[in-house]
Amino acid sequence: MQNAHDHPGHGSTLGVSATSAHQDGVMDAVEAVPTPNGPGALVRRARQERGLTLCQLGAITGYSAAQVSRLERGRSAMTDIAVLRRFACALDIPPQDLGLAPARIEPTRHSSTTGPYPRLPAPTVEIPGHEDGEDAVRRRKLLANLAVTAAAAVGAPISGTSHTRTAEAQPGELLVAGLRDAMLGLGASPPDLSPDHLSGGLARAVAHFNASSYVSLADRLPSLIRAGHQAGADHHAVLARCYLLATRALIKLDEPTLGWMAADRARQLAQASGSPLEVAEAARQQAVLARQAGWHDQSLTLALGAADDPALREAGNIGIAQRGLLIQCAAYTVAHQRDQEGMRQLTKEAAAIADELGGVTFLRDTAGGFNGATVQLHLISAEYKAGDPSAAIAAADALHPMTLPTVERRALYHVDKATAYAQWGRRDECIGALLEAERCAADETHARPAVKAMVSGLLVSGRTTPELRGLAARAGVLAS
After folding, report:
1. b/e per residue 277-312 (b: at least 16 CB within 10 A)
2. What is the pLDDT of residues 183-209, one digit of tens each?
3. What digits encode the pLDDT tens for the residues 15-28?
């Protein structure tokens, strides 16, 4: 995927573009100045003294030129022992200069976790740093009260009762209620499940998510979380994946408090079970939550730190694809900072990874897979978030939704296109795109708070049509 708006990286704080980074002649004139006494600065000086380009050092160490640039400039934290030893060996830097013990004792594969990302502040009732008009949507009750008051507010069953769909509760609300109770340890204990049944049940839950079947997901995923906790430490890897799926659903349904809780559990369980791909995916979900909270620097640290983890390179194509997703996530965070140029640079880097892989790399804990089409899908929302809705529509027009790997991703394509049209003031096209999203995945479209807010705005901003009023009724939005 290449974006039609192709700008070189002049003055960006994120380093050289993917195009220039892959040219052997790239030298340091385009780089930002690193922190003078940090490990990245030592690596940079050693590289320059040996006359190596970013690409040449990347070839020696197994990193891309863009990754080397980020590490040198401190954009990605250079604290992982394996990373430091790799560069010390490549550049003949005395280990103690980088804070390492002189002896070259290589750690075992799982002797340390995927470590250079910080623990973010614990979630609060109202996430700090988020001061825009979405505050009212993002407020959530204290977890201690969620067990009863949230269920009553949405008409969903309180713990211990059946999750039968009612006329008052939307599928997304039933899913949130079920996940909340399971995560708080409330509700009836499920029957014992064998490891094979746990894994099989999770595969079916992922299929429900990818098909945007929230009613089926609400019936299955909370029970899997309860069963995973009962199964004990031998099944932490499967339980981590259950929590990753729960995090994705909670982010989509705008439930950040429960989302933080699920993401943190996923990461701890993945670390305990020695699952580097799941650790990286948990970091990506935490980066999304940090971005939504307005913690952009922390979000970038989480995503880029996880992308630079050596364990992903050891995992083959799946690990490379996971790294592409993390860089893609970082690009969207930069878009939130209105750095369009930096966003496009990182998007190009993700697209180059997709081109290198070729085809679709299927990832069990993400939205079906990673390829050039999923990178292009991400670019649509990144362009309008960076402030250019016309570029977002151009990116959408360059992508056929049927090339996306799942129904859930195709529905997101239409919702993102509607959002860009709304930002651009193209009301009729916005309504048309929302109706396309509904035809693609009704539960998905009706459940998303962003869609409800868009429909509410359309109802009060101009003339209404039978199609718009019908969509509002089906989504549970009441006209004023």
Report:
1. bbbbbbbbbbbbbbbbbebbebbbbbbbbbbbbbbb
2. 998 877 666 666 668 888 998 998 899
3. 333 333 333 333 33
Q: How many helices (H) and strands (E) does the chain have?
A: 25, 0
- Are 146 and 180 a contacting pair, CB within 8 Å? yes
- Taking the C-alpha atoms of residue 181 and residue 41, their distance in angstroms, rounded to an integer, is 49
Give domain limits for the chain: 18-98
Q: Annotate 8-41 with DSSP letters as a single string.
A: --TT-TT-S-HHHHTSTT--GGGSPPPPTTSHHH
Backbone phi and psi for residue 7, each to the nearest 5 degrees, phi listed first = -115, 140
Backbone region of residue 473 per phi and psi (left: phi > 0; alpha: psi in -120 to 50; beta: other values): alpha
Report pLDDT for 142: 32
Gap between the Cα atoms of 146 and 143, Å rounded: 5
| Three-class DSSP category at 44 | helix
CB atoms within 10 A of CB 321: 26
Instruction: Extract the tokens encoding 157.
Output: 């069953």
Q: How far is residue 477's CA from residue 480's CA, in Å, rounded to a whole number?
A: 9
Q: What is the mean pLDDT of the chain?
A: 77
101: tokens are 């013990």
- Token readout for 212 is 């945007």
| Helical segments of 50-194, H only | 54-61, 65-72, 81-91, 135-138, 143-145, 151-154, 171-183
Given 3.20.20.80, 2.40.100.10, 1.10.260.40, 3.30.70.250, which CATH number is that of 18-98?
Answer: 1.10.260.40
H helices present in 274-406, as ranges? 276-292, 296-307, 310-314, 317-336, 340-357, 372-385, 389-397
pTM over 0.85: no
- Retrieve residue 16's tokens: 């050289």
* pLDDT value, residue 345: 93
DSSP 3-state percent helix, strand, coil across the chain (nearest 5): 65, 0, 35
**Residue 355: pLDDT over 80:** yes
